[in-house]
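Module 6 notes. Inverse folding takes a fixed backbone as the condition and produces residue identities as the prediction. Think of it as a translation problem where the source language is geometry and the target language is the twenty amino acids. Below is one complete input and output pair. Work through it position by position during the lab.
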Protein backbone atom coordinates (compact mmCIF):
# COMPACT_ATOMS: atom_id res chain seq x y z
CA UNK A 1 0.00 0.00 0.00
CA UNK A 2 1.36 3.43 -0.90
CA UNK A 3 1.91 5.62 2.14
CA UNK A 4 0.68 9.20 2.30
CA UNK A 5 3.35 11.77 3.03
CA UNK A 6 2.95 13.61 6.30
CA UNK A 7 1.95 16.80 4.47
CA UNK A 8 -0.63 14.99 2.35
CA UNK A 9 -1.99 13.17 5.40
CA UNK A 10 -2.29 16.45 7.31
CA UNK A 11 -4.18 18.06 4.46
CA UNK A 12 -6.43 15.05 4.05
CA UNK A 13 -7.16 14.89 7.77
CA UNK A 14 -8.08 18.58 7.85
CA UNK A 15 -10.36 18.12 4.86
CA UNK A 16 -12.08 15.03 6.24
CA UNK A 17 -12.54 16.47 9.71
CA UNK A 18 -13.44 20.05 8.94
CA UNK A 19 -13.82 20.52 5.21
CA UNK A 20 -17.17 19.02 4.23
CA UNK A 21 -19.26 22.22 4.46
CA UNK A 22 -16.60 24.17 2.56
CA UNK A 23 -16.36 21.45 -0.07
CA UNK A 24 -19.92 22.29 -1.04
CA UNK A 25 -18.71 25.75 -2.09
CA UNK A 26 -16.19 24.27 -4.49
CA UNK A 27 -12.63 25.51 -4.85
CA UNK A 28 -13.78 27.80 -7.69
CA UNK A 29 -15.63 29.97 -5.20
CA UNK A 30 -12.43 30.42 -3.16
CA UNK A 31 -9.78 30.99 -5.81
CA UNK A 32 -9.81 32.25 -9.40
CA UNK A 33 -7.14 31.47 -12.00
CA UNK A 34 -6.19 33.50 -15.07
CA UNK A 35 -3.26 33.30 -17.47
CA UNK A 36 -1.17 36.47 -17.80
CA UNK A 37 0.73 37.39 -20.97
CA UNK A 38 4.29 38.68 -20.84
CA UNK A 39 5.11 38.45 -24.54
CA UNK A 40 8.20 37.01 -26.23
CA UNK A 41 11.63 37.13 -24.63
CA UNK A 42 14.87 37.99 -26.40
CA UNK A 43 15.71 34.28 -26.65
CA UNK A 44 12.40 33.45 -28.34
CA UNK A 45 10.53 31.93 -25.41
CA UNK A 46 7.11 33.07 -24.19
CA UNK A 47 6.82 34.61 -20.73
CA UNK A 48 3.48 34.02 -19.05
CA UNK A 49 2.12 33.38 -15.58
CA UNK A 50 -0.68 31.61 -13.75
CA UNK A 51 -2.38 34.22 -11.56
CA UNK A 52 -4.33 32.91 -8.58
CA UNK A 53 -6.58 35.31 -6.69
CA UNK A 54 -7.78 33.89 -3.39
CA UNK A 55 -10.71 34.89 -1.26
CA UNK A 56 -9.68 37.11 1.67
CA UNK A 57 -7.88 35.16 4.39
CA UNK A 58 -7.34 32.04 2.30
CA UNK A 59 -3.95 30.66 1.30
CA UNK A 60 -2.50 28.12 -1.09
CA UNK A 61 0.76 26.23 -1.11
CA UNK A 62 4.33 26.18 -2.39
CA UNK A 63 5.83 23.17 -4.21
CA UNK A 64 6.92 21.77 -0.80
CA UNK A 65 3.95 22.70 1.41
CA UNK A 66 5.30 21.76 4.84
CA UNK A 67 3.49 19.74 7.51
CA UNK A 68 -0.01 21.05 6.75
CA UNK A 69 -0.62 21.65 3.08
CA UNK A 70 -1.49 20.20 -0.30
CA UNK A 71 1.29 20.37 -2.93
CA UNK A 72 0.19 21.83 -6.29
CA UNK A 73 0.29 19.60 -9.35
CA UNK A 74 0.09 20.64 -13.01
CA UNK A 75 -1.29 18.83 -16.04
CA UNK A 76 -0.40 20.53 -19.32
CA UNK A 77 -2.34 18.04 -21.48
CA UNK A 78 -4.12 19.88 -24.27
CA UNK A 79 -1.43 22.53 -24.66
CA UNK A 80 -0.17 23.14 -28.17
CA UNK A 81 3.25 23.88 -29.67
CA UNK A 82 5.11 23.53 -26.37
CA UNK A 83 8.57 21.95 -26.14
CA UNK A 84 9.31 22.90 -22.51
CA UNK A 85 7.79 24.75 -19.54
CA UNK A 86 9.91 26.25 -16.75
CA UNK A 87 8.24 27.46 -13.54
CA UNK A 88 9.77 30.16 -11.32
CA UNK A 89 8.42 30.01 -7.77
CA UNK A 90 8.40 33.32 -5.87
CA UNK A 91 9.77 33.01 -2.35
CA UNK A 92 6.94 31.67 -0.15
CA UNK A 93 5.84 32.54 3.37
CA UNK A 94 5.77 30.30 6.45
CA UNK A 95 2.46 29.91 8.29
CA UNK A 96 1.61 28.27 11.61
CA UNK A 97 -1.64 26.35 11.19
CA UNK A 98 -3.21 24.52 14.14
CA UNK A 99 0.24 23.82 15.57
CA UNK A 100 1.61 22.71 12.20
CA UNK A 101 3.90 24.69 9.91
CA UNK A 102 2.95 25.21 6.27
CA UNK A 103 4.64 27.03 3.39
CA UNK A 104 2.77 28.99 0.75
CA UNK A 105 1.03 32.18 -0.32
CA UNK A 106 -1.84 34.27 1.00
CA UNK A 107 -4.39 36.34 -0.98
CA UNK A 108 -2.73 35.86 -4.37
CA UNK A 109 0.01 34.07 -6.27
CA UNK A 110 1.58 35.06 -9.57
CA UNK A 111 3.47 31.99 -10.79
CA UNK A 112 5.72 32.81 -13.79
CA UNK A 113 5.98 30.17 -16.51
CA UNK A 114 8.47 30.39 -19.37
CA UNK A 115 7.42 28.39 -22.43
CA UNK A 116 9.75 27.19 -25.17
CA UNK A 117 7.74 26.62 -28.38
CA UNK A 118 8.33 23.63 -30.64
CA UNK A 119 7.83 25.85 -33.68
CA UNK A 120 8.63 29.56 -33.11
CA UNK A 121 6.49 30.51 -36.13
CA UNK A 122 3.28 28.99 -34.73
CA UNK A 123 0.98 30.13 -31.86
CA UNK A 124 1.43 28.69 -28.37
CA UNK A 125 -1.62 27.44 -26.49
CA UNK A 126 -1.39 26.93 -22.72
CA UNK A 127 -4.13 24.54 -21.69
CA UNK A 128 -4.42 22.22 -18.71
CA UNK A 129 -5.35 21.78 -15.07
CA UNK A 130 -3.91 22.80 -11.73
CA UNK A 131 -4.62 20.59 -8.72
CA UNK A 132 -4.24 22.57 -5.53
CA UNK A 133 -5.41 23.03 -1.99
CA UNK A 134 -6.64 26.23 -0.36
CA UNK A 135 -6.90 26.62 3.39
CA UNK A 136 -8.29 28.94 6.03
CA UNK A 137 -10.10 27.31 8.95
CA UNK A 138 -10.59 24.29 6.69
CA UNK A 139 -8.60 22.86 3.78
CA UNK A 140 -10.31 22.41 0.42
CA UNK A 141 -8.66 20.44 -2.41
CA UNK A 142 -9.73 21.18 -5.94
CA UNK A 143 -8.90 21.52 -9.61
CA UNK A 144 -8.77 24.64 -11.79
CA UNK A 145 -8.80 24.60 -15.60
CA UNK A 146 -7.03 27.07 -17.86
CA UNK A 147 -6.97 27.56 -21.64
CA UNK A 148 -5.21 30.52 -23.20
CA UNK A 149 -3.40 31.24 -26.47
CA UNK A 150 -0.39 33.33 -25.58
CA UNK A 151 0.04 36.76 -27.13
CA UNK A 152 3.49 36.99 -28.69
CA UNK A 153 3.12 40.77 -29.04
CA UNK A 154 2.19 41.43 -25.42
CA UNK A 155 4.47 43.81 -23.55
CA UNK A 156 6.23 43.34 -20.25
CA UNK A 157 3.67 42.56 -17.54
CA UNK A 158 4.43 44.32 -14.23
CA UNK A 159 2.88 41.55 -12.10
CA UNK A 160 5.06 38.92 -13.79
CA UNK A 161 8.14 41.12 -13.43
CA UNK A 162 7.38 41.57 -9.71
CA UNK A 163 6.95 37.83 -9.19
CA UNK A 164 10.24 37.08 -10.97
CA UNK A 165 11.95 39.63 -8.74
CA UNK A 166 10.64 37.74 -5.69
CA UNK A 167 12.42 34.51 -6.61
CA UNK A 168 14.96 33.21 -4.09
CA UNK A 169 18.57 34.34 -4.51
CA UNK A 170 20.98 31.94 -6.17
CA UNK A 171 23.91 30.60 -4.15
CA UNK A 172 26.22 33.14 -5.79
CA UNK A 173 23.85 36.05 -5.15
CA UNK A 174 23.44 35.04 -1.50
CA UNK A 175 27.16 34.55 -0.91
CA UNK A 176 26.97 30.81 -0.15
CA UNK A 177 30.50 29.53 0.38
CA UNK A 178 29.69 25.83 0.58
CA UNK A 179 26.94 23.35 1.48
CA UNK A 180 27.65 19.86 2.83
CA UNK A 181 25.24 17.08 3.76
CA UNK A 182 25.91 14.29 6.26
CA UNK A 183 23.69 11.20 5.92
CA UNK A 184 22.89 8.81 8.78
CA UNK A 185 20.58 5.77 8.60
CA UNK A 186 17.49 5.80 10.86
CA UNK A 187 14.92 3.13 11.71
CA UNK A 188 12.51 4.58 9.12
CA UNK A 189 14.84 6.03 6.52
CA UNK A 190 17.75 8.44 6.60
CA UNK A 191 18.67 11.57 8.51
CA UNK A 192 20.20 14.39 6.51
CA UNK A 193 22.11 17.18 8.24
CA UNK A 194 23.17 20.10 6.06
CA UNK A 195 25.85 22.64 7.01
CA UNK A 196 25.60 25.77 4.88
CA UNK A 197 28.25 28.47 5.16
CA UNK A 198 26.51 31.70 4.16
CA UNK A 199 25.63 35.17 5.44
CA UNK A 200 22.36 35.45 7.34
CA UNK A 201 19.20 35.76 5.24
CA UNK A 202 17.75 37.88 8.04
CA UNK A 203 15.78 37.23 11.20
CA UNK A 204 14.87 33.71 12.24
CA UNK A 205 15.94 31.60 9.27
CA UNK A 206 13.89 28.55 8.22
CA UNK A 207 15.20 25.91 5.82
CA UNK A 208 13.24 23.48 3.66
CA UNK A 209 14.87 20.30 2.34
CA UNK A 210 13.61 18.63 -0.84
CA UNK A 211 15.16 15.19 -1.53
CA UNK A 212 14.81 15.55 -5.31
CA UNK A 213 13.12 12.16 -5.77
CA UNK A 214 9.29 12.41 -5.82
CA UNK A 215 9.06 9.06 -4.01
CA UNK A 216 10.94 10.49 -1.02
CA UNK A 217 9.52 12.76 1.67
CA UNK A 218 11.47 14.99 4.09
CA UNK A 219 10.16 15.92 7.53
CA UNK A 220 10.04 19.51 8.74
CA UNK A 221 13.69 20.48 9.35
CA UNK A 222 15.16 21.75 12.57
CA UNK A 223 17.23 24.82 11.74
CA UNK A 224 19.68 26.88 13.77
CA UNK A 225 22.74 29.03 13.11
CA UNK A 226 26.26 28.75 14.52
CA UNK A 227 28.11 31.86 13.47
CA UNK A 228 28.59 31.84 9.71
CA UNK A 229 27.08 28.35 9.33
CA UNK A 230 23.41 27.49 9.07
CA UNK A 231 22.67 23.95 10.24
CA UNK A 232 19.46 22.18 9.27
CA UNK A 233 18.45 18.54 9.66
CA UNK A 234 15.53 16.40 8.54
CA UNK A 235 14.50 12.77 8.24
CA UNK A 236 13.92 11.42 4.73
CA UNK A 237 11.47 8.54 4.25
CA UNK A 238 10.48 6.56 1.16
CA UNK A 239 6.80 6.36 0.17
CA UNK A 240 7.28 2.64 -0.41
CA UNK A 241 8.62 2.13 3.10
CA UNK A 242 11.65 0.29 1.71
CA UNK A 243 15.35 1.15 1.54
CA UNK A 244 16.55 3.86 -0.82
CA UNK A 245 19.58 5.82 -1.94
CA UNK A 246 19.76 9.59 -1.56
CA UNK A 247 21.63 11.49 -4.26
CA UNK A 248 23.19 14.58 -2.70
CA UNK A 249 23.36 16.30 -6.09
CA UNK A 250 19.53 16.19 -6.29
CA UNK A 251 18.95 17.61 -2.81
CA UNK A 252 17.49 21.14 -2.91
CA UNK A 253 17.58 23.39 0.14
CA UNK A 254 15.63 26.63 0.33
CA UNK A 255 16.45 29.04 3.14
CA UNK A 256 13.73 31.53 4.03
CA UNK A 257 14.83 34.62 5.93
CA UNK A 258 13.37 38.00 6.84
CA UNK A 259 15.43 39.76 4.14
CA UNK A 260 15.45 37.22 1.32
CA UNK A 261 15.31 33.55 0.40
CA UNK A 262 18.15 31.40 -0.96
CA UNK A 263 17.94 28.44 -3.38
CA UNK A 264 20.73 25.90 -2.91
CA UNK A 265 21.04 23.14 -5.51
CA UNK A 266 22.85 20.06 -4.30
CA UNK A 267 25.32 19.53 -1.47
CA UNK A 268 28.63 17.72 -1.14
CA UNK A 269 29.52 14.92 1.27
CA UNK A 270 30.22 16.03 4.79
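Target side of the pair, the amino acids:
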Amino acid sequence: MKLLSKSAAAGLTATLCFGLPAMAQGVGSLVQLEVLDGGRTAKGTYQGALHLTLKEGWKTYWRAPGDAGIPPQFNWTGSGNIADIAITWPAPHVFDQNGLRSVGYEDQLVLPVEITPKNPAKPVRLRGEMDLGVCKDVCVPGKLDFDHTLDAKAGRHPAIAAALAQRPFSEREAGVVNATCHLTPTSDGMRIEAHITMPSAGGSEFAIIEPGNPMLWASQPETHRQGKTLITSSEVISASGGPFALDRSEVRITVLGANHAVDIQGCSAG
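Reference fact for the lab report: The longest strand covers residues 125-135.
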